[in-house]
């Protein structure tokens, strides 16, 4: 395989409903790089920056998939709790990143996300008060998965058996 990579699946958690609007690749990437720089300094930032990218994100569900080199994923993961806000159009929105899963391929993260969404769906459905609310929740959760075209980019070949 080429370079070994790790994919870190996170969710953006925020009390501020407006935070969803600023969940975009650039804002998330900058917030993560900023946190890495604060926690690990220039050296850590340099290590993590090689091959670091926001691979996928769904602003509606707050799901973010980050990619980095295998040898720097621990640096990345240890800095994620220090992301405290996302910035967009000079507005700051307090939030934090909850790490859900670390995998060797996009596909393993996708499988995890499907299971995670199923569990979330069951919890949400149990708290529903009416049929309309229930339908809306089902529809929104069924629509969020990592799309097929994303897994065609050649990142699938580096599965190191992490499930």
Automatic annotation (TrEMBL):
Record-linked Gene3D superfamilies: Ribonuclease P, Pop5 subunit (3.30.70.3250)
Compartments it resides in: Nucleus, Nucleolus
Coiled coil location: none
InterPro entries listed in its UniProt record: Pop5/Rpp14/Rnp2-like (IPR002759), RNase_P/MRP_POP5 (IPR016819), Rnp2-like_sf (IPR038085)
Example GO biological process: rRNA processing
Keywords per UniProt: Nucleus, rRNA processing, tRNA processing
Function: Component of ribonuclease P, a protein complex that generates mature tRNA molecules by cleaving their 5'-ends. Also a component of the MRP ribonuclease complex, which cleaves pre-rRNA sequences.
Protein name as annotated: Ribonuclease P/MRP protein subunit POP5
Organismal lineage: Eukaryota, Metazoa, Chordata, Craniata, Vertebrata
Gene that encodes the chain: Pop5
């Amino acid at each position: 395989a080429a370079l070994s990579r790790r994919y870190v699946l996170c969710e953006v958690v925020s009390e501020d409903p407006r935070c969803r609007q600023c969940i975009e690749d650039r804002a998330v990437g900058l917030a993560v790089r900023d946190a890495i720089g604060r926690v690990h300094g220039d050296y850590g930032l340099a290590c993590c920056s090689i091959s670091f990218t926001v691979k996928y994100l769904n602003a509606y569900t707050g799901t973010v998939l980050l990619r980095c080199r295998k040898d720097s994923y621990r640096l990345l993961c240890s800095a994620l709790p220090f992301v405290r806000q996302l910035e967009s159009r000079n507005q700051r929105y307090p939030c934090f990143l909850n790490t859900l899963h670390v995998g060797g391929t996009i596909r393993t993260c996708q499988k995890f996300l499907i299971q995670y969404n199923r569990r979330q769906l069951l919890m949400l459905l149990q708290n529903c008060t009416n049929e309309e609310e229930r339908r809306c929740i089902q529809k929104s959760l069924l629509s969020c998965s990592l799309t097929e075209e994303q897994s065609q980019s050649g990142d699938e070949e580096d599965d190191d058996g992490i499930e």
